[in-house]
Amino acid sequence: MSLKEQISTDIKEAMKAKENVKRDALRLLSSAFKQIEVDERKELSDEDIIKIIQKQIKQRNDSIEQYTIAGRDDLIEKEQAEISFYEPYLPKQLSDEELTTAIKAIIAQVEATTMKDIGKVMGMASKELAGKVDGKRINECAKALLS
Fold this sequence. Notes:
Blueprint: H1 3-16, H2 20-40, H3 46-70, H4 73-86, H5 96-110, H6 118-128, H7 135-146
Helix pairs in contact: 1-2, 2-4, 3-4, 5-6, 5-7, 6-7
């Protein structure tokens, strides 16, 4: 079963269980899929769906930062709930130790020695670790290891 089918099934289950918050959050995700399918006229693969989910989570985290500044705890809780519904569809995220090990291997592979080589490291790491780690975490780890 593809991720898209799984999310559709979960929407139906949430409807039956009268879990309105989960239903609405997953419907938002489903509508994001449909919008991209219509705009780009293509069928989404699981990799595409993972990228969309990650983008949605990033948007929610950005909103949480803004709501924290504004003191809107009610909206923070809503965004955090949506994130908790989206995360189970992502692949297992790498721990800090696993990330550091992977970045060290990539640094050795591209023979990076200084911060000038960060572009090479980021390019390769983004491809190899796609879906497993947020780009911001990759960047922070690479900078720490190269400086």
